[in-house]
Prior knowledge:
Helix content: 10-25%
CATH class: Alpha Beta
Radius of gyration: 11 Å
Strand content: 25-35%
Number of helices: 2
CATH architecture: 2-Layer Sandwich
CATH topology: Alpha-Beta Plaits
Order of helices and strands: EHEEHE
Low-confidence stretches: none
Strand order of the largest sheet: 1-4
Oligomer: single chain
Number of strands: 4
Number of domains: 1
Largest sheet: 2 strands, antiparallel
Bound molecules: iron/sulfur cluster
Amino acid sequence: xxxxxxxxxxxxxxxxxxxxxxxxxxxxxxxxxxxxxxxxxxxxxxxxxxxxxxxxxxxxxxxxxxxx
Length: 68
Ligand code: SF4
Ligand code: SF4
């Protein structure tokens, strides 16, 4: 089981991690950060996260931290 922490201010909302997650657990959020980007959030199904870190590896802005 894993948990993803999104550094909202680093995220540019590019969606690469959304595509990368094999469990489809990430989604672009509804709230803009201070730079005007809509940062990613983890869905309310985090018990499905296996901590594979594919999302974090894919992020060009190192905005994701994965804990297992
Ligand atoms: S760690 Fe893996 S399963 Fe969990 S949100 Fe990231 S890509 Fe998805
Ligand atoms: S890949 Fe990184 S910058 Fe892009 S939406 Fe995901 S967390 Fe944000």
